[in-house]
Amino acid sequence: SRNAISSTGTSINYAESMRASALTQSDNALSQGLTHTKHFSEQVTNTVRSLYELGKSMGHGQSSDESYGNSESSQKYQGLESFAQHVDDFAKSHNMSTDQAVRLTAQAYAKGEVTAGLSSPIPMIKASVNGTLGVHAARDNTSSASTQQALSDSERYSENHSLKDMVDLVNRASHDTSFKQHNDISDRLTSNIGNSYDKALSMRTEAVANLNEASSLRKVASYSQEHAASINTNAGQSFVNWLQAQPNHGGGRLGI
Q1: Which residues, in sequence order, are bridge partners of residue 247?
Q2: In this predicted model, what pLDDT tens digit does every residue of 209-254 receive, in sequence order?
Q3: What is the pTM of this model?
Q4: What does the alpha-carbon distance between residue 62 and residue 54 come to, in Å, rounded to a whole number?
């Protein structure tokens, strides 16, 4: 409690105890966040693979104008044909399989979506996210091409070609009966996209919450180390006030 903290004797290294506790909690939150990031990436890979297959099916003589009701939607679906062609060209230019190109595109998209949700993350948290996704990219890319260069190229494509818009559109189509459905292949693919993307969104929410919590706790640990002398002298009432104001991304405030 606040009174117990205020009367703590100076012989107790309160600052170090607080730092150690915050680091332990941060490590646990980070571990959970990276696990959810990995699962998010896996679901995104399923989504992007189905996007690619849907684009290829449209390129094989199926008309997006007949498949989906309005011109805006049909233009987006025509964009899927271009996306499928991009994946084929990307695989060829980077000397890798089509599936590897799909995976790298998914990794780039996942990285952008997770990092965009982080609020004032410390560099260590962002590096951990990048490292987790990079490990999977390296594992999946067995060609002689530079994995990092290929991943950077995928990130630029994802940023410049509204991949998120296409994912969102097909996801809506999978849940909206007003979209005309025209054959078993496209119905299956849009359903796959909807299912995998719904799971991906859930994993992203969990990942971002855990990673933001880990970042906040690391800041608590740094503060307690930097202000150890004053904290240990009088149990750091100003520190307690600061700590109680820190956001707990799991709900409420961190507090003590």
Answers
A1: 253
A2: 999 999 999 999 999 988 888 777 766 566 667 777 777 766 665 5
A3: 0.76
A4: 10
